[in-house]
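Contributing new complexes? Match this layout with uridine-diphosphate-N-acetylglucosamine.
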Amino acid sequence: MDQLVIEGGHPLKGTIRISGAKNAALPILAATLLTGGTFRLRNIPKLLDIDTFIELLTDLGSRVRYNSDNGSDLCIDSSDLSDHEAPYKLVRRMRASILVLGPLIARLGRARVSLPGGCAIGARPIDFHLKGLELMGVNLQLKEGYVEARTRGLTGARIYFDIPSVTGTENLMMAGVLARGTSVLVNAAREPEVVTLGQMLSHMGAKIRGLGSSTIEIEGVKELRPVDWEIIPDRIEAGTYMMAPGAAGGRLIIKDVITGHLEAVISKLRSTGLQIDTDKTSISIKNRGTLRSVDVKTLPYPGFPTDLQAQIMVLMSLASGLSVITETIFENRFMHVAELRRLGADIRIEGRNAIIKGVRRLNGAPVMATDLRASASLVLAGLAARGTTTISGVHHLDRGYECMEQKLAAVNAKITREKRV
Ligand code: UD1
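Output block (do not edit by hand):
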């Protein structure tokens, strides 16, 4: 397995361009199952999770190829689906495989999808997805670790989410577009990734109202058509790099973003004392030499994203004063804390709160990446730490950050990848 070696303490300088959003690309890839014909998707990020999803689509019978002139453009044709199963070997690698459930049941009237099981950041059930489909007239059976879904025809339903679920909203929206009648998703997720999926579905001929609000209304249609679509920039990748000057010092310009998607992050980072200037598609961040502690609570969009909780904890570990970070979305998302402590961070966990007392400096050490965003926090900590930090378990990072070490090395970070066979 590869590892990253970081020599900390070098202030950053330069520009980082943001790739397409993983969490927008995955449901959009799933949506290509809804109809035959050729979709063209642009700005697809090069990530392990995308490769896994393409493997899943290919297994199902979709024809997928990259445009040879531009490695981030994909053509997908799902005219001849030959299977309706998402097998354990793929779902185990990536929970988001569950996103094929809605489109398969809508298109074929049946689907067999492995249950995701536990994961590093908590139980993460899929009960909302299943309850919603049942209300739409799907017969569900759990057999040998698989959800077996069948319907003679989806019918629109009013579905209430106990907690706004991102992939839950996406799955049920994709089911609703081909259902008979109108579906209403109440307390739905409002994330930009949900909105861009809904916009793409509308472009395909779906009738959807209320995108970006917590009530989404979908009037089923008989047919959809394939479209060309561009993946929005990754706000989590952008937020991660926005924190890098806070950790390592220096100044970065983050380009190709939608600044409006990062309001909570910009506001929080400004409160820490970082100087941030923005226009619509780029953000400049400068470390003015001191970092102040702030409290952070993760919330559904437009609140502060749970996917940036581990990263901001690194900044709070180096800030003056005491900070409380409250994780309200996932019950077990503090795996990075033990590793940050190995670098000298002073962090105590009390239930869903992490209490962080800023220290003057972190010191390099060998650490282990446990999940995607935890890995990103270790990279930030390594950039800040005195001496050398070696991060193993880097495959987690490759799931969600395109060319991270190249992007950072280009802005003066001393970071290299050591290949291990
Ligand atoms: C998505 C993102 C992930 C992000 C998360 C929260 C993708 C591919 N992944 O994950 O990066 O961290 O949103 O912003 O887009 N819940 C249930 N039952 C369900 C579904 C969810 O109880 O059926 C709970 C979860 O345990 C969690 C909360 O609802 O506490 C929100 O989870 P959800 O939004 O569904 O996360 P994902 O869609 O899996």
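Reviewers usually confirm one structural detail per submission. For this one: Residues 23, 26, 96, 124-129, 163, 165-168, 189, 193, 306-307, 329-330 surround uridine-diphosphate-N-acetylglucosamine (CB under 6 Å).
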